[in-house]
Design a protein that fits this description.
Elements: E1 8-20, E2 31-42, E3 47-58, E4 64-76, H1 92-114
Antiparallel strand pairs: 1-4, 2-3, 3-4
Length: 137
């Protein structure tokens, strides 16, 4: 199998939505994170957009503390090479790469958005994207 090289450019990042709830937060509070990703493509623009949704909840009581939605856009110069054999989806390696970059970008967005708030100690943990579980839409 021949290894392919892709010409990829990080094109854009947009914070689409954020919610910050006014919860009482104690220093020893534990938070859980629900992370969802999905990608879409615009073949004519050679653009892949990966959207990341994160919901942050207090583990005790399951109250939502904050939520964020951000989109990262990637341009693939050799777009046709990036498509799976059936042509309707990305090759898995690129899909995983875009999810990894987008989740890392979201980590920075959350850090920046929570700085100076009552949730400034809450950070999206580092995890491997292949640990995410697929869900039905």
């Amino acid at each position: 199998m021949q290894k392919k090289n892709f010409n990829i450019r990080f094109d854009r990042v947009e914070l689409l939505a954020k919610t910050l709830n006014n919860l009482a937060v104690e220093q020893d509070d534990v938070f859980s994170f629900e992370v969802k990703t999905h990608s879409s493509m615009k073949k004519e623009e050679r653009l892949i957009v990966t959207v990341v949704d994160v919901i942050i909840k207090k583990a005790a009581g399951n109250e939502t503390a904050a939520s964020f939605t951000a989109a990262c856009g990637f341009i693939i110069e050799n777009f046709d090479d990036a498509l799976a054999k059936k042509g309707n989806s990305l090759v898995k390696e690129l899909d995983d790469l875009f999810k990894t970059i987008s989740i890392s970008t979201m980590r920075g967005i959350i850090y920046s958005e929570l700085r100076g708030t009552h949730l400034h100690q809450v950070h999206l943990p580092v995890f491997l994207p292949n640990s995410l579980q697929p869900v039905e839409q």
